[in-house]
Amino acid sequence: MKKIQMVDLKSQYAQIKDVVNLSIQEVIETTAFINGPKVHEFQKNLEQYLNVKHVIPCANGTDALQIAMMGLGLKPGDEVITADFTFAATVEVIALLQLTPVLVDVNEDDFNINIEAIKKAITPKTKAIVPVHLFGQCANMEAIMEIAKAHNLYVIEDNAQAIGANYTYKNGKKVKAGTIGHVGATSFFPSKNLGCYGDGGAIFTNDDNLAHTLRGIVNHGMYERYHHDVVGVNSRLDSIQAAVLNVKLPYLNDYNKARQNAAKKYNRAFKDIDAIVTPKVTYSCGEICDTCDCHVFHQYTLQLKGVDRDALVKHLNEKSIPCGVYYPIPLHNQKAYTDSRYNETDFPVTNQLVKEVISLPMHTELDDEQIEYITSTILNFIYG
Ligand SMILES: *Cc1c(COP(=O)(O)O)cnc(C)c1O
User: Fold this and answer.
1) Domain span at 318
2) For the stretch 232-265, what's the b/e string if a residue is b when 16 or more beta carbons lie within 10 angstroms of its beta carbon?
3) pTM surpassing 0.90?
4) Which GO terms describe its molecular function (predicted)?
Protein backbone atom coordinates (compact mmCIF):
# COMPACT_ATOMS: atom_id res chain seq x y z
CA MET A 1 0.00 0.00 0.00
CA LYS A 2 1.15 3.49 -0.84
CA LYS A 3 2.10 5.52 2.27
CA ILE A 4 -0.94 7.46 3.47
CA GLN A 5 -0.63 11.23 3.56
CA MET A 6 -2.98 13.87 4.92
CA VAL A 7 -2.64 15.59 1.53
CA ASP A 8 -0.76 13.87 -1.30
CA LEU A 9 0.51 16.66 -3.53
CA LYS A 10 3.32 14.56 -4.94
CA SER A 11 1.11 11.93 -6.59
CA GLN A 12 -1.15 14.66 -7.94
CA TYR A 13 1.84 16.49 -9.43
CA ALA A 14 3.09 13.30 -11.06
CA GLN A 15 -0.02 13.24 -13.27
CA ILE A 16 0.35 16.81 -14.56
CA LYS A 17 4.10 17.13 -14.30
CA ASP A 18 4.92 17.75 -17.96
CA VAL A 19 2.30 20.44 -18.46
CA VAL A 20 3.06 22.18 -15.17
CA ASN A 21 6.78 22.18 -15.84
CA LEU A 22 6.23 23.61 -19.30
CA SER A 23 3.92 26.32 -17.99
CA ILE A 24 6.43 27.35 -15.30
CA GLN A 25 9.25 27.24 -17.85
CA GLU A 26 7.32 29.66 -20.06
CA VAL A 27 7.25 32.22 -17.26
CA ILE A 28 10.96 31.87 -16.70
CA GLU A 29 11.77 32.10 -20.42
CA THR A 30 9.69 35.25 -20.84
CA THR A 31 10.85 36.67 -17.46
CA ALA A 32 7.32 38.05 -16.96
CA PHE A 33 7.55 37.24 -13.26
CA ILE A 34 5.23 39.95 -11.96
CA ASN A 35 1.79 40.61 -13.44
CA GLY A 36 2.71 38.57 -16.50
CA PRO A 37 0.21 37.27 -19.07
CA LYS A 38 -0.27 34.05 -17.06
CA VAL A 39 -1.84 36.05 -14.23
CA HIS A 40 -4.29 37.75 -16.56
CA GLU A 41 -5.08 34.45 -18.27
CA PHE A 42 -5.78 32.80 -14.92
CA GLN A 43 -7.95 35.71 -13.84
CA LYS A 44 -10.10 35.32 -16.96
CA ASN A 45 -10.26 31.53 -16.63
CA LEU A 46 -11.36 31.74 -13.01
CA GLU A 47 -13.97 34.41 -13.80
CA GLN A 48 -15.43 32.04 -16.35
CA TYR A 49 -15.28 29.02 -14.05
CA LEU A 50 -16.99 30.84 -11.19
CA ASN A 51 -19.35 32.76 -13.42
CA VAL A 52 -18.38 35.97 -11.62
CA LYS A 53 -17.70 39.35 -13.22
CA HIS A 54 -14.42 40.11 -11.50
CA VAL A 55 -11.57 38.07 -10.07
CA ILE A 56 -8.75 40.04 -8.47
CA PRO A 57 -5.75 37.77 -7.93
CA CYS A 58 -3.58 38.49 -4.87
CA ALA A 59 -0.76 37.04 -2.80
CA ASN A 60 -2.65 34.74 -0.40
CA GLY A 61 -6.03 34.05 1.17
CA THR A 62 -5.39 36.14 4.28
CA ASP A 63 -4.58 39.16 2.12
CA ALA A 64 -7.70 38.47 0.05
CA LEU A 65 -9.85 38.80 3.17
CA GLN A 66 -8.01 41.91 4.33
CA ILE A 67 -8.19 43.64 0.95
CA ALA A 68 -11.89 42.80 0.66
CA MET A 69 -12.52 44.53 3.99
CA MET A 70 -10.36 47.51 3.00
CA GLY A 71 -12.22 47.81 -0.30
CA LEU A 72 -15.58 47.94 1.46
CA GLY A 73 -14.34 50.93 3.45
CA LEU A 74 -14.86 49.35 6.87
CA LYS A 75 -13.63 51.70 9.63
CA PRO A 76 -11.97 51.08 13.01
CA GLY A 77 -14.62 50.21 15.57
CA ASP A 78 -17.01 48.69 13.03
CA GLU A 79 -18.20 45.33 14.23
CA VAL A 80 -17.72 42.30 12.00
CA ILE A 81 -19.51 39.06 12.84
CA THR A 82 -17.77 35.77 12.06
CA ALA A 83 -17.63 32.16 13.21
CA ASP A 84 -15.91 31.05 16.41
CA PHE A 85 -14.97 27.75 14.76
CA THR A 86 -12.60 28.59 11.89
CA PHE A 87 -8.96 29.13 11.02
CA ALA A 88 -7.51 32.21 12.74
CA ALA A 89 -6.86 34.10 9.47
CA THR A 90 -10.53 35.05 9.24
CA VAL A 91 -10.57 36.89 12.55
CA GLU A 92 -6.94 38.04 12.33
CA VAL A 93 -7.52 40.45 9.46
CA ILE A 94 -10.61 41.89 11.14
CA ALA A 95 -8.53 42.69 14.23
CA LEU A 96 -5.57 43.90 12.16
CA LEU A 97 -7.73 46.53 10.48
CA GLN A 98 -8.87 47.63 13.97
CA LEU A 99 -12.37 46.45 13.25
CA THR A 100 -14.06 44.65 16.13
CA PRO A 101 -14.42 40.90 15.59
CA VAL A 102 -17.65 39.51 17.03
CA LEU A 103 -17.41 35.74 17.23
CA VAL A 104 -20.55 33.64 17.18
CA ASP A 105 -21.35 29.94 17.53
CA VAL A 106 -21.74 27.45 14.69
CA ASN A 107 -24.13 24.61 13.77
CA GLU A 108 -23.54 21.10 15.00
CA ASP A 109 -24.59 19.53 11.70
CA ASP A 110 -22.45 21.39 9.16
CA PHE A 111 -19.93 23.29 11.35
CA ASN A 112 -20.97 26.58 9.72
CA ILE A 113 -21.97 29.90 11.27
CA ASN A 114 -25.30 29.76 13.10
CA ILE A 115 -28.04 32.02 11.79
CA GLU A 116 -29.75 32.68 15.14
CA ALA A 117 -26.38 33.51 16.70
CA ILE A 118 -25.73 36.07 13.94
CA LYS A 119 -29.10 37.71 14.60
CA LYS A 120 -28.40 37.91 18.34
CA ALA A 121 -24.97 39.50 17.77
CA ILE A 122 -26.13 42.39 15.62
CA THR A 123 -25.77 45.86 17.18
CA PRO A 124 -25.96 49.38 15.68
CA LYS A 125 -22.18 49.10 15.11
CA THR A 126 -22.37 45.91 13.03
CA LYS A 127 -21.17 46.54 9.48
CA ALA A 128 -20.37 43.12 8.03
CA ILE A 129 -20.76 39.36 8.30
CA VAL A 130 -17.97 36.97 7.28
CA PRO A 131 -19.37 33.48 6.76
CA VAL A 132 -16.66 30.83 6.40
CA HIS A 133 -17.59 27.93 4.12
CA LEU A 134 -15.93 25.52 6.46
CA PHE A 135 -14.41 22.22 5.30
CA GLY A 136 -15.88 22.63 1.81
CA GLN A 137 -19.56 23.45 2.09
CA CYS A 138 -21.36 26.76 2.07
CA ALA A 139 -22.87 28.41 5.08
CA ASN A 140 -26.61 29.16 4.79
CA MET A 141 -26.06 32.06 2.39
CA GLU A 142 -29.71 32.63 1.61
CA ALA A 143 -30.47 33.36 5.28
CA ILE A 144 -27.27 35.40 5.68
CA MET A 145 -28.04 37.60 2.67
CA GLU A 146 -31.54 38.19 4.05
CA ILE A 147 -30.14 39.35 7.41
CA ALA A 148 -27.57 41.52 5.63
CA LYS A 149 -30.23 43.18 3.55
CA ALA A 150 -32.46 43.87 6.54
CA HIS A 151 -29.59 45.45 8.52
CA ASN A 152 -27.66 47.00 5.66
CA LEU A 153 -24.54 44.86 6.19
CA TYR A 154 -21.80 43.69 3.86
CA VAL A 155 -21.21 39.99 3.38
CA ILE A 156 -17.64 38.80 2.80
CA GLU A 157 -17.43 35.07 2.05
CA ASP A 158 -14.33 33.29 3.29
CA ASN A 159 -14.19 30.73 0.50
CA ALA A 160 -10.67 29.44 1.19
CA GLN A 161 -11.97 25.90 1.79
CA ALA A 162 -14.83 25.65 -0.69
CA ILE A 163 -13.65 26.66 -4.15
CA GLY A 164 -15.73 24.87 -6.77
CA ALA A 165 -18.56 24.06 -4.36
CA ASN A 166 -22.06 24.88 -5.51
CA TYR A 167 -24.56 26.65 -3.36
CA THR A 168 -28.13 25.62 -4.12
CA TYR A 169 -30.92 28.09 -3.44
CA LYS A 170 -34.31 26.90 -2.20
CA ASN A 171 -35.64 27.42 -5.73
CA GLY A 172 -32.98 25.09 -7.14
CA LYS A 173 -30.73 27.74 -8.64
CA LYS A 174 -27.05 26.88 -8.27
CA VAL A 175 -24.17 29.32 -7.98
CA LYS A 176 -20.51 28.90 -7.09
CA ALA A 177 -19.41 29.39 -3.50
CA GLY A 178 -17.81 32.78 -2.98
CA THR A 179 -19.91 34.63 -5.55
CA ILE A 180 -23.05 35.22 -3.48
CA GLY A 181 -21.99 37.90 -0.99
CA HIS A 182 -20.76 41.39 -1.85
CA VAL A 183 -17.29 39.95 -2.09
CA GLY A 184 -15.60 36.56 -1.76
CA ALA A 185 -12.04 35.66 -0.80
CA THR A 186 -10.12 32.48 -1.47
CA SER A 187 -6.71 30.90 -0.96
CA PHE A 188 -4.54 28.83 -3.28
CA PHE A 189 -2.34 27.51 -0.46
CA PRO A 190 -0.91 24.20 -1.74
CA SER A 191 -3.23 21.97 0.30
CA LYS A 192 -6.43 23.83 -0.61
CA ASN A 193 -8.79 22.25 -3.19
CA LEU A 194 -7.21 24.43 -5.89
CA GLY A 195 -3.65 24.80 -4.65
CA CYS A 196 -0.62 26.37 -6.26
CA TYR A 197 3.03 25.61 -5.43
CA GLY A 198 3.51 28.44 -2.97
CA ASP A 199 1.19 31.16 -1.72
CA GLY A 200 -1.68 32.60 -3.73
CA GLY A 201 -5.16 34.01 -3.32
CA ALA A 202 -8.00 35.83 -5.04
CA ILE A 203 -10.96 38.09 -4.41
CA PHE A 204 -14.26 37.79 -6.33
CA THR A 205 -17.05 40.28 -6.86
CA ASN A 206 -19.85 41.12 -9.27
CA ASP A 207 -19.68 44.81 -8.31
CA ASP A 208 -17.80 46.87 -10.95
CA ASN A 209 -16.98 49.77 -8.62
CA LEU A 210 -15.76 47.52 -5.84
CA ALA A 211 -13.63 45.55 -8.32
CA HIS A 212 -11.99 48.78 -9.47
CA THR A 213 -11.27 49.80 -5.86
CA LEU A 214 -9.82 46.38 -5.07
CA ARG A 215 -7.53 46.35 -8.12
CA GLY A 216 -6.00 49.57 -6.87
CA ILE A 217 -5.62 48.40 -3.28
CA VAL A 218 -3.68 45.25 -4.26
CA ASN A 219 -1.23 47.49 -6.10
CA HIS A 220 -0.22 50.20 -3.58
CA GLY A 221 -3.47 52.12 -4.02
CA MET A 222 -2.50 53.03 -7.61
CA TYR A 223 -5.15 53.53 -10.26
CA GLU A 224 -2.78 55.44 -12.49
CA ARG A 225 0.96 54.86 -12.42
CA TYR A 226 2.55 56.71 -9.46
CA HIS A 227 -0.76 58.24 -8.41
CA HIS A 228 -1.67 56.81 -5.02
CA ASP A 229 -5.33 57.60 -4.35
CA VAL A 230 -5.84 55.30 -1.38
CA VAL A 231 -3.60 53.46 1.05
CA GLY A 232 -3.00 50.07 -0.51
CA VAL A 233 -0.80 47.03 -0.06
CA ASN A 234 1.55 45.01 -2.21
CA SER A 235 -0.33 41.78 -2.78
CA ARG A 236 0.26 40.13 -6.14
CA LEU A 237 -0.26 36.62 -7.41
CA ASP A 238 3.13 35.47 -8.61
CA SER A 239 3.22 34.63 -12.36
CA ILE A 240 4.79 31.25 -11.61
CA GLN A 241 1.88 30.44 -9.27
CA ALA A 242 -0.58 31.60 -11.94
CA ALA A 243 1.18 29.24 -14.38
CA VAL A 244 0.51 26.32 -12.02
CA LEU A 245 -3.09 27.40 -11.37
CA ASN A 246 -3.83 27.71 -15.07
CA VAL A 247 -2.88 24.07 -15.52
CA LYS A 248 -4.80 22.89 -12.44
CA LEU A 249 -8.06 24.86 -12.83
CA PRO A 250 -9.43 22.62 -15.63
CA TYR A 251 -8.99 19.66 -13.23
CA LEU A 252 -10.75 21.31 -10.29
CA ASN A 253 -14.10 19.59 -10.88
CA ASP A 254 -12.39 16.21 -11.16
CA TYR A 255 -10.32 16.93 -8.05
CA ASN A 256 -13.45 17.81 -6.10
CA LYS A 257 -15.22 14.72 -7.46
CA ALA A 258 -12.30 12.56 -6.25
CA ARG A 259 -12.67 14.09 -2.78
CA GLN A 260 -16.43 13.45 -2.84
CA ASN A 261 -15.86 9.85 -3.83
CA ALA A 262 -13.42 9.36 -0.97
CA ALA A 263 -15.96 10.96 1.40
CA LYS A 264 -18.66 8.62 0.15
CA LYS A 265 -16.47 5.59 0.91
CA TYR A 266 -15.67 6.89 4.39
CA ASN A 267 -19.38 7.55 4.96
CA ARG A 268 -20.27 4.02 3.94
CA ALA A 269 -17.75 2.50 6.33
CA PHE A 270 -18.97 4.60 9.27
CA LYS A 271 -22.68 4.25 8.56
CA ASP A 272 -24.76 3.25 11.60
CA ILE A 273 -21.77 3.52 13.94
CA ASP A 274 -23.04 5.21 17.12
CA ALA A 275 -19.65 6.52 18.18
CA ILE A 276 -19.06 8.34 14.89
CA VAL A 277 -21.04 11.16 13.33
CA THR A 278 -20.15 11.56 9.65
CA PRO A 279 -20.22 15.00 7.97
CA LYS A 280 -23.66 16.18 6.95
CA VAL A 281 -24.33 17.92 3.68
CA THR A 282 -27.04 20.45 4.32
CA TYR A 283 -29.02 23.26 2.68
CA SER A 284 -28.66 21.61 -0.67
CA CYS A 285 -29.62 18.23 -2.01
CA GLY A 286 -29.44 16.82 1.51
CA GLU A 287 -27.04 13.99 0.76
CA ILE A 288 -23.81 13.27 -0.98
CA CYS A 289 -24.77 12.23 -4.46
CA ASP A 290 -23.20 11.93 -7.88
CA THR A 291 -25.02 14.86 -9.36
CA CYS A 292 -24.31 17.62 -6.87
CA ASP A 293 -21.18 19.48 -5.92
CA CYS A 294 -22.43 21.22 -2.81
CA HIS A 295 -19.69 19.84 -0.55
CA VAL A 296 -16.13 19.69 -1.90
CA PHE A 297 -14.58 18.11 1.21
CA HIS A 298 -11.58 20.28 1.84
CA GLN A 299 -11.61 18.30 5.06
CA TYR A 300 -13.42 15.09 5.95
CA THR A 301 -14.29 15.70 9.59
CA LEU A 302 -15.92 13.29 12.00
CA GLN A 303 -17.47 13.96 15.40
CA LEU A 304 -16.52 11.30 17.91
CA LYS A 305 -19.09 10.41 20.56
CA GLY A 306 -17.67 8.86 23.73
CA VAL A 307 -14.35 7.99 22.08
CA ASP A 308 -11.01 9.04 23.62
CA ARG A 309 -9.79 11.27 20.79
CA ASP A 310 -6.22 11.65 22.01
CA ALA A 311 -5.87 7.88 22.25
CA LEU A 312 -7.34 7.45 18.76
CA VAL A 313 -4.95 10.04 17.30
CA LYS A 314 -2.02 8.24 18.94
CA HIS A 315 -3.24 4.87 17.67
CA LEU A 316 -3.64 6.18 14.10
CA ASN A 317 -0.18 7.71 14.15
CA GLU A 318 1.26 4.39 15.33
CA LYS A 319 -0.44 2.76 12.36
CA SER A 320 1.07 5.39 10.01
CA ILE A 321 -2.25 7.13 9.43
CA PRO A 322 -1.99 10.91 9.64
CA CYS A 323 -4.97 12.86 10.94
CA GLY A 324 -5.71 16.37 12.13
CA VAL A 325 -7.79 18.25 14.67
CA TYR A 326 -9.30 21.30 13.01
CA TYR A 327 -9.71 23.22 15.22
CA PRO A 328 -8.63 22.34 18.77
CA ILE A 329 -9.27 25.72 20.44
CA PRO A 330 -12.26 28.04 19.91
CA LEU A 331 -11.16 31.46 18.66
CA HIS A 332 -12.91 33.16 21.59
CA ASN A 333 -10.47 31.34 23.89
CA GLN A 334 -7.37 32.39 21.94
CA LYS A 335 -5.37 35.00 23.86
CA ALA A 336 -5.34 37.41 20.91
CA TYR A 337 -9.12 37.34 20.49
CA THR A 338 -10.63 37.18 23.98
CA ASP A 339 -13.27 39.83 24.63
CA SER A 340 -15.26 40.61 27.76
CA ARG A 341 -18.43 40.60 25.69
CA TYR A 342 -18.29 36.79 25.41
CA ASN A 343 -19.72 34.21 27.82
CA GLU A 344 -18.80 30.53 27.58
CA THR A 345 -22.54 29.83 27.31
CA ASP A 346 -22.58 31.72 23.99
CA PHE A 347 -20.58 28.93 22.33
CA PRO A 348 -22.02 25.55 23.34
CA VAL A 349 -21.52 23.96 19.91
CA THR A 350 -17.98 25.19 19.26
CA ASN A 351 -16.95 24.23 22.80
CA GLN A 352 -18.25 20.73 22.13
CA LEU A 353 -16.83 20.39 18.60
CA VAL A 354 -13.26 21.29 19.59
CA LYS A 355 -13.30 18.22 21.87
CA GLU A 356 -14.92 15.81 19.40
CA VAL A 357 -13.70 16.53 15.87
CA ILE A 358 -11.07 14.61 13.96
CA SER A 359 -10.20 15.06 10.28
CA LEU A 360 -9.07 12.07 8.23
CA PRO A 361 -6.71 12.05 5.25
CA MET A 362 -8.50 13.78 2.37
CA HIS A 363 -7.05 14.49 -1.05
CA THR A 364 -7.45 13.65 -4.70
CA GLU A 365 -5.28 10.52 -4.74
CA LEU A 366 -6.74 8.33 -1.96
CA ASP A 367 -7.27 4.76 -3.17
CA ASP A 368 -9.66 2.06 -1.95
CA GLU A 369 -6.93 0.09 -0.18
CA GLN A 370 -5.91 3.15 1.83
CA ILE A 371 -9.49 4.06 2.73
CA GLU A 372 -10.24 0.49 3.79
CA TYR A 373 -7.09 0.48 5.97
CA ILE A 374 -8.00 3.82 7.57
CA THR A 375 -11.63 2.94 8.28
CA SER A 376 -10.91 -0.57 9.58
CA THR A 377 -8.15 0.76 11.83
CA ILE A 378 -10.59 3.28 13.33
CA LEU A 379 -13.39 0.74 13.75
CA ASN A 380 -10.99 -1.77 15.32
CA PHE A 381 -9.85 0.89 17.78
CA ILE A 382 -13.41 1.67 18.82
CA TYR A 383 -14.81 -1.88 18.90
CA GLY A 384 -11.59 -3.92 18.75
C1 LIG B 1 -6.38 28.77 4.42
C2 LIG B 1 -7.41 29.68 4.97
C3 LIG B 1 -7.24 31.07 4.99
C4 LIG B 1 -5.96 31.76 4.65
O5 LIG B 1 -5.38 31.46 3.46
P6 LIG B 1 -3.79 31.72 3.22
O7 LIG B 1 -3.65 31.63 1.75
O8 LIG B 1 -3.08 30.64 3.97
O9 LIG B 1 -3.47 33.08 3.74
C10 LIG B 1 -8.30 31.85 5.44
N11 LIG B 1 -9.44 31.29 5.87
C12 LIG B 1 -9.62 29.96 5.90
C13 LIG B 1 -10.94 29.42 6.38
C14 LIG B 1 -8.62 29.11 5.46
O15 LIG B 1 -8.82 27.79 5.51
Assistant:
1) 251-383
2) bbebbbbbbbbbbbbbbbebbeebbbbbbbbbbb
3) yes
4) pyridoxal phosphate binding; transaminase activity
